[in-house]
Amino acid sequence: MMSTSQPEPVRAAMTMDGRRLSYLDYGGPGRPLLALHGHFNEGRNFAKLARALGPDWRVVAPDQRGHGFSDRESDFSRESYIHDAAALIAHLGLSQAVVLGHSLGGVNAYQLAARHPRLVSALVIEDIGAEIDDDLSFCLAWPHRALTRTALVEQLGDSARYLTDAIREYPDGWGLAFRPQDMVTSVGQVNGNHWDDWLATDCPALLIHGTRSDTLTEHHAKAMAARRPNTQLVELATGHTVHETDPAGFATTVRAFLGTRALEPTGRQLQMRQPHRIAP
Fold first, then answer.
1. Which CATH superfamily is domain 10-131+192-272 in?
2. Which alpha helices (DSSP H) does the chain contain, by range?
3. What is the pTM of this model?
4. Which residues are CB-neighbours of 222 under 8 A, at least 6 positions away?
5. Per-residue model confidence as pLDDT tens digits over 118-132
């Protein structure tokens, strides 16, 4: 059941190497869940999920580098994204967080678990695979600025419905909260074979597949679930953005997973439970 009394999230930021990483903290007494968005998106895309999970779960949703209210960055390497997530967990003093990620955020989530297994108690991966070959070059045609919000939406065409949260007003007009070329650079770093990272851990994992997705195939999703221990596959009748297309179904699926005994630590996790420090 969705909570109606949960307070509004707090917008905060941490600074790393002079760069600002902005995040939303939905607060509350619950266990921590770090939510990582996909390309073009930002932390507030998980507002409905946070309300549905509260107060049992404290959702923290960063605007990942180059997105939302975080600073623009030239480095979109795999290690840099992972370092940001690990540093945020350390900054907030979180312990054994569940890490949820959509698309880009999903890869960041399971690679975070592979690199820093002591930080992650469980994974929720939304519609992304272990082998990725994506192309975002279509976004290079999107306008940099428009005189009005209406004009920007018209120029974005059908893509506008996916970019509502990313539309901003700037001194020189209306534009997006990211630079399209940065997204092309970033996805180029995401593309590749990541089976080793996906199979590196055995913490409980939920893989959510949109059956109409053009990013993750049914065959690949089933292979991911079959090859990795402690992995549950759930399919919902949506496209790639499951949390947006079916927010109620997505939240129900995530809450059911979080409420199961599947989140009890595995033998490998128990062996690794000792203090863990992230290098600055």
1. Alpha/Beta hydrolase fold, catalytic domain (3.40.50.1820)
2. 47-53, 78-92, 104-115, 149-156, 180-190, 195-198, 218-227, 242-245, 247-258, 267-272
3. 0.92
4. 233
5. 999 999 999 999 999
